[in-house]
Please model this.
Amino acid sequence: MAHPTDQDLDLAIAGMLRFGVSLAALVVLAGGLLLLGHAWNTLPNYASFHPGGPQLRTLRGIFAGVGRLDARSIIQCGLVLLIATPVARVVFCVAGFARQRDKLYVGVSAFVLAVLIYSLTKG
Amino acid sequence: MNLLAFSGLLFGTSVLAGFLGSLTGLGGGVVLVPALALLFKVDIRYAIGASLVSVIATSSGAAVAYVRDGLSNIRVGMFLEIATTVGAVSGAYLATRVSTHWIAVVFGVVLLGSAAASFRQKQDSVPPEAKQGNRMAERLELRGVYPAPGGGEPYTAQRVPLGFAIMLGAGTLSGLLGIGSGAVKVLAMDQAMKLPFKVSTTTSNFMIGVTAAASAGIYLSRGYIDPALAMPVMLGVLGGSLLGTKVLVRAKVATLKSLFALVIVILGCEMIYNGFAGKV
Model:
């Protein structure tokens, strides 16, 4: 299969997306159960906005928290996996278009990927 | 109310939002943000953060069902994602700068627009305009074959710059409001670019996840995504929308759709009023 069709590419991508979402949901669920297990009787306050520290806002902080088995960091890690799923889809597309030797769309999908990477790293 | 009860109520609301959103094709995010802001008194910045991640979950989760039909057009989607991702990044930056009152008002207007859009006529065929050639679309490979009963019907996108411009707007709204803005994406493809309706809806679903991911990084680094709040919302919307796609074939959607549209109109008016009153 030197030149996969669009349909083959779509199916492979859809399967990958489902895997990413399932994995993310499991990680979020695990973190959520851990959180509710020890903090179930605390009072949530979301009426006013506090951005919070870097431990839940940067990849480095989140992964460090996962290492400590911090429940909120585990949920956040699941959400990062979720955000990474469509990014992986675009990576798949760059590769798929390259195999189809479609230079125009290698460029188009690489541009979209660059915007996503900008948002995730520099945003 | 303690965290357990709060999470339980949020989960239930999110299941309902996801279920109705997928059943009616309007998406879950569009009712979720007003529900969180108005009923649960959650700051709208946390609400749009939680909504955005659930939008990514439903878009990616539903992709398998859509791809099987072979209707989505991967090149049309990828080309227009240039516009939606750039728009989403600008929208997310805008969200961190404008006041929450204005976000609420814009949200209300978008809700009213989505309610109106849900009653649009859908044709199950290739529009006559899409049978003409279009030099720009051909150069950009924006065409495909629609699987019609009597064999495949080729179509070509029209008015590419207009579609692209509307997609920039769709991306900006998505980044500003934490919604998928599927209604605007479909509008750009089927009304502006004259693509077949089903090609537009399935391609839009694919685009929603990528668009949302483009603003998610900015939301995350600004602290809009609170894990304890996003957890029940994301799991609930995902579960509800998967349930919705399962019953989609059997349910009588027309009545439900009118009811849901009515709810959206009420929420839209509430958001506009609360935004102007400075309560959200």
In short: Chain A has one domain: 6-39+53-121. Chain A touches chain B through 66 residues (CB under 8 Å).
